[in-house]
Amino acid sequence: MLSEQSAATVRATLPAVGAALGTITERFYAGLFAARPELLNDLFNRGNQAAGTQRQALAGSVAAFATHLLDHPEQRPDAMLHRIAHKHASLGIRPEQYDVVHEHLFAAIAEVLGDAVTPEVAAAWDEVYWLMANALIAVEKRLRQERGGHAWRAWEVVERVAETDDVATFRLRPADGGPVRDFLAGQYVSVRVALPDGARQIRQYSLSGAPAPDLRQISVKRVRGEGTPDGEVSNHLHARVAVGDVLELSEPYGDLVLDAGPDTPLLLASAGIGVTPMTAMLAHLAGSGHRAPVTVVHGDRSPATHALRADHEAYAAKLPEAAVHFWYEQDAPAGARSGLVDLAGVPVEPGTRAYLCGPLPFMRAVRAQLIGRGWRRPTSTTRCSGRTCGWRGGRPRGRGDQRPARSPAAGPRSAPPRCPPP
Ligand SMILES: Cc1cc2nc3c(=O)[nH]c(=O)nc-3n(C[C@H](O)[C@H](O)[C@H](O)COP(=O)(O)OP(=O)(O)OC[C@H]3O[C@@H](n4cnc5c(N)ncnc54)[C@H](O)[C@@H]3O)c2cc1C
Ligand code: HEM
User: Fold this and answer.
1) What mean pLDDT comes out for the span 143-156?
2) Closest Cα partner for 163 from 99, 224, 220?
3) 156 SS3 class
4) Residue 141: what are its φ and ψ, rounded to 5°?
5) Looking at the CA of 189, which ligand is closest?
6) How close is the Cα of 387 to the center of ligand 1, in Å?
């Protein structure tokens, strides 16, 4: 909790800090990377830095944390802290790096706000920063310890499967031959690759299933530049990584995970490469005896671009009460629908819990459709950089519709469960 004196100072200066966030962010990263160029090459996403996307996340979340401390002094914004801590822990961020960020963030604030940053103002924002940093450091330490303490581990590619023209699945086994830790369906790993110019860039990939107890599986969509450079890591994985090669992976992280008992009705809605956490969730449900209705919704350009479609259908078919609804913009086969996902005609059981993952326009559209149908606002939100996003909400009991019979698109009831139980 903030001291009374700092709270008053932060309240008075929050509007000025908020209004200058863009410039503060620019100066912060310029100073940070000038002093520590290895952080740009080997830790931060240099595509995001070049494109200017996600840059305000750090400074913006400090301002959001300050707002929360002022509005709810008795509560900690745990959802926000945990989301960031999972990401940081997956990246291998170390406690001493908080001093480096502090130095350059506060230098940027002083440079941008000038004389307004009196010693009193600096001390008040220092208190905010360290309250947040210490909370993050503590959660990150616990998360790392729960996963055995080390950041990176070498994994050998044992199988590579072309799912579609643009999506490849990589199956990996620990190069040290050691055991593979379980994961929760919906979690991701960070993947660190050495690029030809010597930089080591890191990206996150959802675990798209667990084909065997000693394997990890990720499915990567190649990001083609549309007037901008091609995505660095996804194209590197597609062009250069084959069976026998070794990748560095973090342990599984992420708190947007499947959290439902066998009698909780579920809606799993995805689009494009947002299918990856959904197949892991379906695999888990299929292997854990989920009894309640599961409504599976997916949108894609065409059946040919629908990655993991066979898994998507086969796991759904293993469930006693699943209804599958697929939308394709082109070439929709019998049993699927044409166009973009539209939940208007999709009946959903009362008390259903929803998990959404897909590109931002899909997330916005589906979220608006759910809210329009009386769903309460999401209990937690995750914005994953670039390609995928997650949104999880609940639906008030007693406001549902009737469910239809199982869709013919659900496919045969045959595939074995793959994802280890959380
Ligand atoms: C939790 C999480 C889970 C994810 N799961 C998956 C998954 O299962 N499968 C999957 O495929 N992806 C997944 N992603 C996305 C993945 O992490 C990467 O973001 C994605 O692969 C793109 O990385 P990249 O290195 O190829 O692209 P980047 O190099 O990071 O480029 C990203 C974008 O920036 C643009 N850009 C680059 N440089 C510039 C510039 N100078 N000017 C303007 N624009 C520029 C590129 O054109 C591209 O559109 C997930 C992300 C998160 C956060
Ligand atoms: C109080 C201090 C910090 C705050 C509030 C903060 C906040 C954030 C936020 C909000 C995100 C985005 C999370 C998401 O995508 O869900 C993020 C990502 C990230 N943070 Fe931090 N952070 C802090 C300290 C640090 C430190 C000390 C480092 C290491 C030098 C660091 C490195 C990163 C990196 C590399 C990313 C991923 C972004 C990318 O790859 O471009 N952060 N942080």
Assistant:
1) 94
2) 220
3) strand
4) -60, -45
5) 1
6) 6
pTM (2 decimals)? 0.92
Query: Which residues' Cβ are closer than 6 Å to ligand 1?
Result: 45, 47, 50-51, 188, 203-206, 219-221, 223, 225, 228-229, 231-235, 254, 273, 276, 384-388
Inside any domain, residue 88: yes
140 shares a domain with 8: yes
Going by CA atoms, what residue is nearest to atom 20 of ligand 1?
234
Structure tokens at 236: 């590197």
Burial of 197 (0-12, 13-18, 19+ CB in 10 A): exposed
Active-site hit among 140, 251, 313, 349: 140
| pLDDT tens-digit readout, 355-364 | 999 999 999 9
Contact yes or no for 276/306 (Cβ under 8 A): no
Concerning whether 120 is annotated as a catalytic residue, the answer is no
The answer to whether 172 touches 154, Cβ cutoff 8 Å, is no
In a domain, 413, yes or no: no
Domain that holds residue 212: 153-249
Mean pLDDT of 122-137: 96
Q: What is the pLDDT of residue 155?
A: 98
Boundary (domain end) residue, out of 184, 215, 249 = 249
**Ligand 2 centroid to 56 CA: how many Å?**
10
Q: How would you class 60 by CB atoms within 10 Å of its CB: exposed for 0-12, middle for 13-18, buried for 19 or more?
A: middle
In the chain, the number of structural domains is 3
Q: Which bound ligand lies closest to the C-alpha atom of 188?
A: 1
Rounded to an integer, what is the distance from CA 336 to the centroid of its chain? 28
Nearest atom in ligand 1 to the alpha carbon of residue 223 is 26
Q: Whose CA is nearest to atom 38 of ligand 1?
A: 47
The predicted pLDDT at position 375 comes to: 78
Give yes or no: 328 in active site: no
Helix (H, G, I), strand (E, B) or coil at 116: helix
- Ligand 2: list residues with CB < 6 Å: 39, 43-45, 48, 54, 57-58, 61-62, 83-84, 87-88, 91, 93, 97-98, 100-101, 129, 132-133, 136, 385
Instruction: Give me the pLDDT at residue 377, please.
Output: 60
Last residue of a domain, one of 146, 177, 194: 146
Does 406 reside within a domain? no
Ligand 1 atom having least distance to the Cα of 386: 19
- The reply to whether 16 and 119 lie within a common domain is yes
The enclosing domain of 360 has a CATH number of 3.40.50.80
Q: What are phi and psi of 256, to 5 degrees?
A: -90, 80
